[in-house]
TrEMBL record:
This is Helix-turn-helix domain-containing protein. It comes from Phenylobacterium conjunctum. Residues 25-80 form the HTH cro/C1-type domain. PROSITE patterns: HTH_CROC1 (PS50943). Coiled coil: none annotated. Transmembrane segments: none annotated. SUPFAM superfamilies: lambda repressor-like DNA-binding domains. It holds the Pfam family HTH_3.
């Protein structure tokens, strides 16, 4: 079955959400007083450039390492994961948490 065409508006919205997640992560890292290299070391990354990619919205924090990232920047794990879910998978976030998403937006 052929893949459906990518909707440009949806692609732009996804890019915007990823960039917002990146800004949020960068702010959390900076608030923790960490450089990209220090964060990379704390979460077991070989290269700090992955942190840069995530902060620019080009990459995502893998689910299996979200707890380590949360601990490294001093945030509560479930709140960290929930914020990333809202940015990375907004429809799943809506299904799980309803339209009360506006309450979480204030923390982003």
């Amino acid at each position: 079955m052929p893949r459906p065409a990518v909707d440009p508006a949806r692609a732009a919205a996804i890019k915007s959400l990823r960039q917002a997640a990146g800004r949020w992560l960068k702010a959390a890292r900076e608030a923790a007083g960490l450089t990209q290299a220090e964060l990379a070391e704390r979460v077991g990354l070989r290269y700090y450039t992955f942190v840069s990619q995530v902060e620019s919205g080009l990459g995502r924090v893998p689910i299996e390492s979200q707890a380590a990232w949360a601990q490294a920047v001093g945030l509560e794990e479930s709140a960290f994961a929930r914020t990333l879910l809202r940015h990375y998978e907004p429809e799943l976030y809506r299904l799980l948490f309803g339209d009360d998403a506006h309450e979480d937006r204030a923390s982003a």
